[in-house]
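Researcher: Next entry in the queue.
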Amino acid sequence: MAIPTAIHDKKYISLATCRKNGTAVRTPIWFAESDNKLVFMTRNDSWKYKRIRNNPRVKVALCNMKGKITGPDFAGNARVLPPNEWDRAKQAIHRKYWLARLPFWSKKNEYLEIEITG
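Model: Structure for this entry, 118 residues:
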């Protein structure tokens, strides 16, 4: 499925990942579009990363910088990208957010992608 026009070219999305008990946890994230998928960066020791490893089903919604939802939810599947696919995601994020280019980011950062399914 294509990236919804409501999300296209926006700055933030709210990523909802599920705990093992099914409770959704929302986090505002930076994202970029690459190959008709959403890509983002997070630390491999973050809770959202761990929740995605346990359950790849996610929801995304448009939000503001503080995480206030401003649009509808869209279902998707997330996956951790293998290191050989990081350059594509990194370039997409760097094109969109100049701050992401600064060298203070953690060495624990990894790239993930979300394919919108509905």
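Model: The first helix runs from residue 47 to 54.
Researcher: Noted, moving on.
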